[in-house]
Amino acid sequence: MVLWSLVLGLLLVVIVGYLFLPGLLRQRRPQEPPLDKGTVPWLGHALAFRKNMFEFLKRMQAKHGEVFTVLLGGQYFHFVMDPFSFGPILKDSRRKLDFVQYAQELVLKVFGYSPMQGDNNMVHSASTKYLMGDGLEELNEVMLDSLSLVMLRPKGQSLDAGCWYEDGLFHFCYNILFKAGYLSLFGYTKDKEQDLLQAEDLFTQFRKYDLLFPRFVYSLLGPREWLEVGRLQSFFHKMLSVKHTQEKDGLSNWVAYMLQSLREQGVTPAMQDKFNFMMLWASQGNTGPTSFWALLFLLKHPEAMRAVKEEATQVLGKVRLEAEQPFPFKLSALQHTPVLDSVMEETLRLRAAPTLIRAVCKDYILKMASGKEYLFRQGDMVALFPYLSVHMDPEIHPEPTAFKYNRFLNPNGSRKVDFYKAGKKIHHYTMPWGSGVSICPGRFLALSEMKLFILLMVTYFDLELVDPGTPVPPVDPQRWGFGTTQPSHDVHFRYRLQPAQ
Question: pLDDT digits over 377-388, tens only?
Fold first, then answer.
Protein backbone atom coordinates (compact mmCIF):
# COMPACT_ATOMS: atom_id res chain seq x y z
CA MET A 1 0.00 0.00 0.00
CA VAL A 2 2.83 2.37 0.94
CA LEU A 3 4.64 1.47 -2.28
CA TRP A 4 1.59 2.28 -4.40
CA SER A 5 1.19 5.57 -2.56
CA LEU A 6 4.79 6.46 -3.35
CA VAL A 7 4.35 5.47 -7.01
CA LEU A 8 1.15 7.49 -7.36
CA GLY A 9 2.73 10.43 -5.59
CA LEU A 10 5.74 10.34 -7.90
CA LEU A 11 3.46 10.06 -10.94
CA LEU A 12 1.49 13.08 -9.76
CA VAL A 13 4.68 15.09 -9.33
CA VAL A 14 5.78 14.15 -12.86
CA ILE A 15 2.39 15.12 -14.36
CA VAL A 16 2.23 18.40 -12.47
CA GLY A 17 5.82 19.16 -13.43
CA TYR A 18 5.12 18.41 -17.08
CA LEU A 19 2.08 20.65 -17.08
CA PHE A 20 3.46 23.52 -15.06
CA LEU A 21 7.10 23.73 -16.10
CA PRO A 22 6.39 25.69 -19.33
CA GLY A 23 4.83 28.43 -17.22
CA LEU A 24 7.35 28.31 -14.39
CA LEU A 25 10.64 28.16 -16.26
CA ARG A 26 10.19 30.20 -19.43
CA GLN A 27 11.83 33.60 -19.33
CA ARG A 28 11.90 36.36 -21.90
CA ARG A 29 15.04 36.31 -24.03
CA PRO A 30 16.69 39.25 -25.81
CA GLN A 31 14.67 40.42 -28.85
CA GLU A 32 11.55 38.50 -27.75
CA PRO A 33 8.22 40.34 -27.29
CA PRO A 34 6.93 41.24 -23.82
CA LEU A 35 5.98 37.99 -22.04
CA ASP A 36 2.82 37.70 -19.96
CA LYS A 37 2.37 34.25 -18.39
CA GLY A 38 -0.51 35.18 -16.10
CA THR A 39 -0.78 33.96 -12.52
CA VAL A 40 -1.86 30.34 -13.05
CA PRO A 41 0.90 27.88 -14.06
CA TRP A 42 0.36 26.18 -17.44
CA LEU A 43 -3.12 27.66 -17.89
CA GLY A 44 -1.74 31.19 -17.99
CA HIS A 45 -4.47 33.46 -19.35
CA ALA A 46 -6.53 30.65 -20.92
CA LEU A 47 -9.67 31.22 -18.83
CA ALA A 48 -9.80 34.98 -19.49
CA PHE A 49 -9.01 34.42 -23.18
CA ARG A 50 -11.77 31.85 -23.61
CA LYS A 51 -14.27 33.91 -21.65
CA ASN A 52 -13.94 36.94 -23.92
CA MET A 53 -11.07 36.96 -26.39
CA PHE A 54 -11.80 40.47 -27.67
CA GLU A 55 -11.73 42.15 -24.25
CA PHE A 56 -8.68 40.15 -23.18
CA LEU A 57 -6.63 41.19 -26.21
CA LYS A 58 -7.68 44.81 -25.77
CA ARG A 59 -6.26 44.72 -22.26
CA MET A 60 -3.04 43.03 -23.40
CA GLN A 61 -2.56 45.53 -26.23
CA ALA A 62 -3.06 48.46 -23.87
CA LYS A 63 -0.57 46.92 -21.44
CA HIS A 64 2.14 45.65 -23.79
CA GLY A 65 1.80 47.43 -27.15
CA GLU A 66 1.75 46.11 -30.70
CA VAL A 67 3.47 42.74 -30.08
CA PHE A 68 3.20 40.54 -27.00
CA THR A 69 3.43 36.89 -25.95
CA VAL A 70 0.83 35.19 -23.73
CA LEU A 71 0.59 31.72 -22.23
CA LEU A 72 -2.69 29.95 -23.08
CA GLY A 73 -3.08 26.41 -21.79
CA GLY A 74 0.58 25.39 -22.08
CA GLN A 75 1.04 27.05 -25.49
CA TYR A 76 2.73 30.40 -26.11
CA PHE A 77 1.04 32.74 -28.59
CA HIS A 78 2.70 35.82 -30.10
CA PHE A 79 -0.02 38.35 -31.01
CA VAL A 80 0.96 40.92 -33.63
CA MET A 81 -1.39 43.92 -33.56
CA ASP A 82 0.28 46.29 -36.06
CA PRO A 83 -1.43 45.87 -39.46
CA PHE A 84 1.56 47.39 -41.28
CA SER A 85 3.59 44.39 -40.05
CA PHE A 86 1.18 41.66 -41.19
CA GLY A 87 2.80 41.24 -44.62
CA PRO A 88 5.84 39.12 -43.68
CA ILE A 89 3.66 36.76 -41.63
CA LEU A 90 1.03 36.31 -44.34
CA LYS A 91 3.57 35.87 -47.13
CA ASP A 92 5.75 33.31 -45.31
CA SER A 93 4.39 30.18 -46.97
CA ARG A 94 5.59 27.24 -44.86
CA ARG A 95 9.22 28.29 -44.67
CA LYS A 96 9.23 29.13 -40.98
CA LEU A 97 5.54 29.75 -40.32
CA ASP A 98 3.05 26.98 -41.06
CA PHE A 99 -0.73 27.27 -41.26
CA VAL A 100 -1.31 23.69 -42.43
CA GLN A 101 -0.03 21.98 -39.27
CA TYR A 102 -2.42 23.87 -37.01
CA ALA A 103 -5.36 23.41 -39.40
CA GLN A 104 -4.78 19.66 -39.69
CA GLU A 105 -4.76 19.19 -35.93
CA LEU A 106 -7.97 21.20 -35.63
CA VAL A 107 -9.97 19.35 -38.32
CA LEU A 108 -8.91 15.99 -36.89
CA LYS A 109 -10.21 16.99 -33.49
CA VAL A 110 -13.40 18.73 -34.60
CA PHE A 111 -14.50 16.67 -37.60
CA GLY A 112 -12.64 13.40 -37.17
CA TYR A 113 -11.02 13.88 -40.57
CA SER A 114 -7.37 12.86 -40.88
CA PRO A 115 -5.91 15.13 -43.60
CA MET A 116 -3.79 13.78 -46.43
CA GLN A 117 -0.65 15.50 -47.63
CA GLY A 118 -1.69 17.96 -50.31
CA ASP A 119 -5.30 18.32 -49.13
CA ASN A 120 -4.91 22.08 -48.77
CA ASN A 121 -3.70 22.40 -52.37
CA MET A 122 -6.50 20.10 -53.55
CA VAL A 123 -9.21 22.22 -51.89
CA HIS A 124 -7.74 25.42 -53.32
CA SER A 125 -7.49 23.85 -56.78
CA ALA A 126 -11.12 22.71 -56.66
CA SER A 127 -12.24 26.12 -55.41
CA THR A 128 -10.32 27.97 -58.12
CA LYS A 129 -11.91 25.76 -60.76
CA TYR A 130 -15.50 25.63 -59.51
CA LEU A 131 -16.00 28.58 -57.12
CA MET A 132 -14.67 31.25 -59.45
CA GLY A 133 -15.33 32.34 -63.03
CA ASP A 134 -17.54 30.05 -65.14
CA GLY A 135 -17.67 27.44 -62.40
CA LEU A 136 -19.06 29.96 -59.95
CA GLU A 137 -21.60 31.17 -62.51
CA GLU A 138 -22.89 27.62 -62.92
CA LEU A 139 -23.11 26.99 -59.17
CA ASN A 140 -24.80 30.36 -58.62
CA GLU A 141 -27.60 29.30 -60.96
CA VAL A 142 -28.19 26.21 -58.83
CA MET A 143 -27.95 28.32 -55.67
CA LEU A 144 -30.54 30.77 -56.98
CA ASP A 145 -33.00 27.96 -57.68
CA SER A 146 -32.32 26.47 -54.25
CA LEU A 147 -32.86 29.79 -52.51
CA SER A 148 -36.14 30.32 -54.37
CA LEU A 149 -37.35 26.85 -53.38
CA VAL A 150 -36.35 27.12 -49.72
CA MET A 151 -37.59 30.70 -49.24
CA LEU A 152 -41.01 29.99 -50.76
CA ARG A 153 -41.42 26.55 -49.19
CA PRO A 154 -39.49 26.77 -45.91
CA LYS A 155 -41.33 23.86 -44.23
CA GLY A 156 -42.21 22.01 -47.41
CA GLN A 157 -45.41 24.03 -47.74
CA SER A 158 -45.86 27.10 -49.91
CA LEU A 159 -46.05 30.54 -48.32
CA ASP A 160 -49.36 32.40 -48.69
CA ALA A 161 -48.74 35.71 -50.41
CA GLY A 162 -49.77 38.61 -48.22
CA CYS A 163 -49.88 36.50 -45.04
CA TRP A 164 -47.56 37.67 -42.24
CA TYR A 165 -45.20 35.15 -40.62
CA GLU A 166 -43.11 35.68 -37.50
CA ASP A 167 -39.72 34.18 -36.69
CA GLY A 168 -36.39 34.91 -35.09
CA LEU A 169 -34.30 36.74 -37.68
CA PHE A 170 -31.12 34.82 -36.84
CA HIS A 171 -32.90 31.46 -37.01
CA PHE A 172 -34.63 32.43 -40.26
CA CYS A 173 -31.48 33.55 -42.07
CA TYR A 174 -29.33 30.66 -40.84
CA ASN A 175 -32.04 28.15 -41.70
CA ILE A 176 -32.60 29.44 -45.24
CA LEU A 177 -28.93 29.83 -46.16
CA PHE A 178 -27.96 26.48 -44.67
CA LYS A 179 -30.63 24.50 -46.50
CA ALA A 180 -30.09 26.25 -49.83
CA GLY A 181 -26.33 25.79 -49.55
CA TYR A 182 -26.60 22.14 -48.55
CA LEU A 183 -28.96 21.26 -51.41
CA SER A 184 -26.86 23.18 -53.94
CA LEU A 185 -23.61 21.51 -52.94
CA PHE A 186 -24.73 17.97 -52.10
CA GLY A 187 -27.56 17.52 -54.59
CA TYR A 188 -31.23 16.56 -54.73
CA THR A 189 -33.22 13.36 -54.98
CA LYS A 190 -36.32 13.09 -57.16
CA ASP A 191 -38.49 13.91 -54.13
CA LYS A 192 -38.09 17.66 -53.44
CA GLU A 193 -40.52 17.46 -50.53
CA GLN A 194 -38.34 14.86 -48.82
CA ASP A 195 -35.21 16.84 -49.65
CA LEU A 196 -36.57 19.90 -47.84
CA LEU A 197 -37.55 17.84 -44.79
CA GLN A 198 -34.12 16.22 -44.67
CA ALA A 199 -32.43 19.61 -45.02
CA GLU A 200 -34.55 20.90 -42.13
CA ASP A 201 -33.48 17.97 -39.95
CA LEU A 202 -29.85 18.53 -40.89
CA PHE A 203 -30.10 22.17 -39.91
CA THR A 204 -31.60 21.30 -36.53
CA GLN A 205 -28.71 18.96 -35.76
CA PHE A 206 -26.18 21.39 -37.25
CA ARG A 207 -27.29 24.10 -34.83
CA LYS A 208 -26.86 21.74 -31.88
CA TYR A 209 -23.30 21.09 -32.99
CA ASP A 210 -22.75 24.77 -33.72
CA LEU A 211 -23.72 25.78 -30.18
CA LEU A 212 -21.20 23.32 -28.72
CA PHE A 213 -18.46 24.18 -31.20
CA PRO A 214 -16.51 26.95 -29.38
CA ARG A 215 -16.24 25.01 -26.13
CA PHE A 216 -15.53 21.82 -28.07
CA VAL A 217 -12.50 23.46 -29.70
CA TYR A 218 -11.26 24.51 -26.25
CA SER A 219 -12.03 21.08 -24.71
CA LEU A 220 -14.44 22.61 -22.17
CA LEU A 221 -17.40 20.27 -22.63
CA GLY A 222 -19.05 18.32 -19.83
CA PRO A 223 -19.38 14.49 -19.99
CA ARG A 224 -22.88 14.56 -21.49
CA GLU A 225 -21.84 17.19 -24.02
CA TRP A 226 -18.92 15.02 -25.16
CA LEU A 227 -21.40 12.19 -25.74
CA GLU A 228 -23.68 14.57 -27.65
CA VAL A 229 -20.80 15.71 -29.87
CA GLY A 230 -20.01 12.09 -30.68
CA ARG A 231 -23.65 11.42 -31.54
CA LEU A 232 -23.84 14.48 -33.78
CA GLN A 233 -20.61 13.61 -35.58
CA SER A 234 -21.91 10.10 -36.28
CA PHE A 235 -25.20 11.56 -37.52
CA PHE A 236 -23.48 13.85 -40.02
CA HIS A 237 -21.02 11.19 -41.16
CA LYS A 238 -24.02 8.98 -41.98
CA MET A 239 -26.19 11.66 -43.60
CA LEU A 240 -23.31 13.00 -45.68
CA SER A 241 -21.85 9.62 -46.56
CA VAL A 242 -20.51 9.09 -50.05
CA LYS A 243 -23.06 6.29 -50.39
CA HIS A 244 -25.91 8.77 -49.97
CA THR A 245 -24.37 11.48 -52.12
CA GLN A 246 -23.86 9.03 -54.98
CA GLU A 247 -27.61 8.33 -54.94
CA LYS A 248 -28.42 12.00 -55.60
CA ASP A 249 -28.58 14.09 -58.74
CA GLY A 250 -26.74 17.36 -59.06
CA LEU A 251 -23.83 16.82 -56.70
CA SER A 252 -21.83 20.00 -57.22
CA ASN A 253 -18.70 19.79 -59.33
CA TRP A 254 -16.80 21.31 -56.41
CA VAL A 255 -17.63 18.47 -54.02
CA ALA A 256 -17.39 15.81 -56.76
CA TYR A 257 -13.90 16.96 -57.76
CA MET A 258 -12.62 16.77 -54.18
CA LEU A 259 -14.16 13.35 -53.51
CA GLN A 260 -12.66 12.02 -56.73
CA SER A 261 -9.24 13.31 -55.65
CA LEU A 262 -9.61 11.57 -52.29
CA ARG A 263 -10.62 8.29 -53.95
CA GLU A 264 -7.59 8.45 -56.23
CA GLN A 265 -5.39 8.81 -53.14
CA GLY A 266 -6.94 5.72 -51.60
CA VAL A 267 -8.89 7.54 -48.86
CA THR A 268 -11.49 5.20 -47.34
CA PRO A 269 -15.23 5.90 -47.79
CA ALA A 270 -15.57 6.41 -44.02
CA MET A 271 -12.93 9.16 -44.11
CA GLN A 272 -14.60 10.70 -47.17
CA ASP A 273 -17.80 10.92 -45.11
CA LYS A 274 -15.92 12.93 -42.50
CA PHE A 275 -14.46 15.12 -45.23
CA ASN A 276 -18.00 15.91 -46.43
CA PHE A 277 -18.97 16.98 -42.92
CA MET A 278 -15.95 19.25 -42.75
CA MET A 279 -16.82 20.88 -46.08
CA LEU A 280 -20.47 21.34 -45.08
CA TRP A 281 -19.28 23.18 -41.99
CA ALA A 282 -16.74 25.25 -43.90
CA SER A 283 -19.28 26.29 -46.53
CA GLN A 284 -22.34 26.88 -44.32
CA GLY A 285 -21.08 27.93 -40.90
CA ASN A 286 -20.84 31.68 -41.65
CA THR A 287 -23.24 32.63 -44.46
CA GLY A 288 -26.38 32.47 -42.31
CA PRO A 289 -24.98 34.49 -39.38
CA THR A 290 -23.52 37.11 -41.75
CA SER A 291 -26.85 37.47 -43.58
CA PHE A 292 -28.59 37.91 -40.23
CA TRP A 293 -26.36 40.83 -39.29
CA ALA A 294 -26.73 42.40 -42.76
CA LEU A 295 -30.54 42.24 -42.73
CA LEU A 296 -30.70 43.47 -39.14
CA PHE A 297 -28.48 46.46 -39.94
CA LEU A 298 -30.70 47.26 -42.92
CA LEU A 299 -33.84 47.02 -40.80
CA LYS A 300 -32.29 49.33 -38.20
CA HIS A 301 -31.08 51.85 -40.83
CA PRO A 302 -33.96 52.84 -43.18
CA GLU A 303 -31.72 54.97 -45.42
CA ALA A 304 -29.53 51.93 -46.05
CA MET A 305 -32.56 49.75 -46.77
CA ARG A 306 -33.88 52.31 -49.27
CA ALA A 307 -30.55 52.44 -51.07
CA VAL A 308 -30.32 48.65 -51.33
CA LYS A 309 -33.94 48.33 -52.50
CA GLU A 310 -33.39 50.91 -55.23
CA GLU A 311 -30.33 49.04 -56.45
CA ALA A 312 -32.16 45.70 -56.24
CA THR A 313 -35.00 47.05 -58.38
CA GLN A 314 -32.50 48.06 -61.05
CA VAL A 315 -30.80 44.67 -60.94
CA LEU A 316 -33.84 42.39 -60.78
CA GLY A 317 -36.34 44.41 -62.78
CA LYS A 318 -39.89 43.06 -62.64
CA VAL A 319 -39.06 39.36 -62.58
CA ARG A 320 -41.34 37.36 -60.25
CA LEU A 321 -40.11 34.87 -57.68
CA GLU A 322 -41.84 31.49 -57.99
CA ALA A 323 -41.00 28.16 -56.39
CA GLU A 324 -39.56 25.47 -58.70
CA GLN A 325 -39.69 27.88 -61.65
CA PRO A 326 -36.60 29.12 -63.50
CA PHE A 327 -35.66 32.58 -62.28
CA PRO A 328 -34.64 34.61 -65.35
CA PHE A 329 -31.95 36.70 -63.72
CA LYS A 330 -28.55 37.37 -65.23
CA LEU A 331 -26.13 36.52 -62.45
CA SER A 332 -23.51 38.76 -64.01
CA ALA A 333 -25.60 41.58 -62.53
CA LEU A 334 -24.12 40.65 -59.15
CA GLN A 335 -20.95 42.36 -60.36
CA HIS A 336 -22.83 45.67 -60.52
CA THR A 337 -24.21 46.14 -57.00
CA PRO A 338 -21.84 48.64 -55.36
CA VAL A 339 -24.30 49.63 -52.63
CA LEU A 340 -24.98 46.03 -51.58
CA ASP A 341 -21.26 45.29 -51.85
CA SER A 342 -20.56 48.12 -49.41
CA VAL A 343 -23.29 46.87 -47.05
CA MET A 344 -21.80 43.38 -47.04
CA GLU A 345 -18.26 44.66 -46.57
CA GLU A 346 -19.37 46.87 -43.69
CA THR A 347 -21.30 43.98 -42.12
CA LEU A 348 -18.23 41.74 -42.34
CA ARG A 349 -16.04 44.49 -40.90
CA LEU A 350 -18.35 44.79 -37.90
CA ARG A 351 -19.08 41.13 -37.29
CA ALA A 352 -16.44 38.88 -38.89
CA ALA A 353 -13.71 38.19 -36.33
CA PRO A 354 -11.43 35.32 -37.41
CA THR A 355 -8.11 34.53 -35.80
CA LEU A 356 -5.22 33.85 -38.19
CA ILE A 357 -2.75 31.41 -36.67
CA ARG A 358 0.64 30.14 -37.82
CA ALA A 359 2.87 27.56 -36.13
CA VAL A 360 6.53 28.64 -35.74
CA CYS A 361 8.50 25.81 -37.40
CA LYS A 362 11.92 27.42 -36.85
CA ASP A 363 13.07 30.36 -34.78
CA TYR A 364 11.68 33.34 -36.67
CA ILE A 365 12.58 37.02 -36.63
CA LEU A 366 9.75 39.39 -37.53
CA LYS A 367 10.86 42.77 -38.79
CA MET A 368 8.15 45.25 -37.92
CA ALA A 369 7.19 48.16 -40.16
CA SER A 370 8.87 50.41 -37.58
CA GLY A 371 12.15 48.58 -38.15
CA LYS A 372 12.12 46.89 -34.77
CA GLU A 373 12.76 43.13 -34.78
CA TYR A 374 11.20 40.44 -32.59
CA LEU A 375 12.26 36.83 -32.14
CA PHE A 376 9.59 34.09 -32.07
CA ARG A 377 10.67 30.69 -30.76
CA GLN A 378 10.23 27.41 -32.60
CA GLY A 379 7.18 25.55 -31.28
CA ASP A 380 5.23 28.73 -30.47
CA MET A 381 2.26 30.18 -32.36
CA VAL A 382 1.89 33.51 -34.15
CA ALA A 383 -1.60 34.98 -34.15
CA LEU A 384 -3.34 37.91 -35.84
CA PHE A 385 -6.74 39.20 -34.72
CA PRO A 386 -7.67 41.75 -37.42
CA TYR A 387 -11.03 42.56 -35.83
CA LEU A 388 -9.32 44.47 -33.03
CA SER A 389 -6.18 45.65 -34.83
CA VAL A 390 -7.84 46.67 -38.12
CA HIS A 391 -11.65 46.57 -38.18
CA MET A 392 -12.02 48.50 -34.89
CA ASP A 393 -9.14 50.93 -35.42
CA PRO A 394 -10.65 54.45 -35.44
CA GLU A 395 -7.78 55.77 -37.54
CA ILE A 396 -8.58 53.33 -40.34
CA HIS A 397 -12.35 53.34 -39.86
CA PRO A 398 -13.70 56.44 -38.08
CA GLU A 399 -16.53 55.62 -35.64
CA PRO A 400 -15.58 51.96 -35.94
CA THR A 401 -18.53 50.55 -33.98
CA ALA A 402 -21.12 52.37 -36.13
CA PHE A 403 -22.78 50.78 -39.16
CA LYS A 404 -22.24 53.01 -42.20
CA TYR A 405 -23.66 51.37 -45.28
CA ASN A 406 -21.66 53.60 -47.64
CA ARG A 407 -18.33 53.33 -45.79
CA PHE A 408 -16.86 51.40 -48.72
CA LEU A 409 -18.23 53.71 -51.43
CA ASN A 410 -16.52 56.68 -53.04
CA PRO A 411 -18.62 59.81 -53.70
CA ASN A 412 -19.02 58.74 -57.35
CA GLY A 413 -20.47 55.38 -56.29
CA SER A 414 -17.38 53.28 -57.04
CA ARG A 415 -15.83 50.95 -54.49
CA LYS A 416 -13.61 52.64 -51.93
CA VAL A 417 -10.30 50.87 -51.38
CA ASP A 418 -8.11 53.69 -50.04
CA PHE A 419 -7.83 53.65 -46.25
CA TYR A 420 -5.10 55.19 -44.13
CA LYS A 421 -3.45 54.88 -40.73
CA ALA A 422 -0.97 57.47 -39.47
CA GLY A 423 -1.10 59.08 -42.90
CA LYS A 424 0.01 55.90 -44.68
CA LYS A 425 -2.18 53.86 -47.01
CA ILE A 426 -2.98 50.49 -45.50
CA HIS A 427 -3.22 47.34 -47.59
CA HIS A 428 -5.15 45.14 -45.14
CA TYR A 429 -8.05 47.47 -44.28
CA THR A 430 -10.45 44.57 -43.68
CA MET A 431 -9.70 40.85 -43.33
CA PRO A 432 -13.00 38.98 -42.87
CA TRP A 433 -11.87 36.06 -45.04
CA GLY A 434 -8.39 35.73 -43.58
CA SER A 435 -5.42 36.31 -45.86
CA GLY A 436 -2.40 34.65 -47.42
CA VAL A 437 -2.36 30.84 -47.52
CA SER A 438 -5.27 30.64 -45.08
CA ILE A 439 -7.66 32.88 -47.02
CA CYS A 440 -11.11 31.32 -47.38
CA PRO A 441 -11.16 29.52 -50.76
CA GLY A 442 -14.98 29.66 -50.91
CA ARG A 443 -15.31 33.40 -50.30
CA PHE A 444 -16.67 34.23 -53.76
CA LEU A 445 -19.43 31.62 -53.50
CA ALA A 446 -20.30 32.67 -49.95
CA LEU A 447 -20.53 36.33 -50.91
CA SER A 448 -22.65 35.74 -54.01
CA GLU A 449 -24.96 33.40 -52.05
CA MET A 450 -25.50 36.04 -49.35
CA LYS A 451 -26.02 38.80 -51.90
CA LEU A 452 -28.63 36.75 -53.75
CA PHE A 453 -30.44 36.09 -50.48
CA ILE A 454 -30.45 39.77 -49.47
CA LEU A 455 -31.61 40.87 -52.94
CA LEU A 456 -34.50 38.41 -52.91
CA MET A 457 -35.53 39.30 -49.35
CA VAL A 458 -35.63 43.08 -49.81
CA THR A 459 -37.30 42.83 -53.23
CA TYR A 460 -40.00 40.19 -52.82
CA PHE A 461 -40.78 40.35 -49.11
CA ASP A 462 -42.10 42.97 -46.72
CA LEU A 463 -39.93 42.94 -43.60
CA GLU A 464 -40.27 44.59 -40.22
CA LEU A 465 -39.02 44.11 -36.69
CA VAL A 466 -41.69 43.06 -34.18
CA ASP A 467 -40.28 45.77 -31.90
CA PRO A 468 -38.75 48.53 -34.05
CA GLY A 469 -36.96 49.89 -31.00
CA THR A 470 -35.15 46.67 -30.18
CA PRO A 471 -31.40 47.29 -30.03
CA VAL A 472 -28.85 45.35 -32.04
CA PRO A 473 -27.90 42.47 -29.72
CA PRO A 474 -24.32 42.17 -28.47
CA VAL A 475 -22.02 39.50 -29.80
CA ASP A 476 -21.92 36.17 -27.97
CA PRO A 477 -18.43 36.43 -26.41
CA GLN A 478 -17.78 32.71 -27.02
CA ARG A 479 -17.78 33.32 -30.79
CA TRP A 480 -14.79 35.68 -30.99
CA GLY A 481 -12.11 34.16 -33.21
CA PHE A 482 -14.42 31.69 -34.99
CA GLY A 483 -15.29 33.47 -38.24
CA THR A 484 -18.53 35.45 -38.26
CA THR A 485 -19.78 36.17 -34.76
CA GLN A 486 -23.27 35.29 -33.57
CA PRO A 487 -25.71 37.33 -31.43
CA SER A 488 -26.19 36.71 -27.72
CA HIS A 489 -29.92 36.39 -28.45
CA ASP A 490 -32.23 36.41 -31.45
CA VAL A 491 -34.36 39.33 -32.72
CA HIS A 492 -37.99 38.71 -33.68
CA PHE A 493 -39.26 39.97 -37.03
CA ARG A 494 -42.26 39.64 -39.35
CA TYR A 495 -42.20 38.94 -43.05
CA ARG A 496 -44.66 38.34 -45.85
CA LEU A 497 -44.35 37.48 -49.50
CA GLN A 498 -45.57 40.36 -51.60
CA PRO A 499 -48.58 39.42 -53.77
CA ALA A 500 -48.12 39.36 -57.53
CA GLN A 501 -48.70 42.73 -59.17
Answer: 999 999 999 999
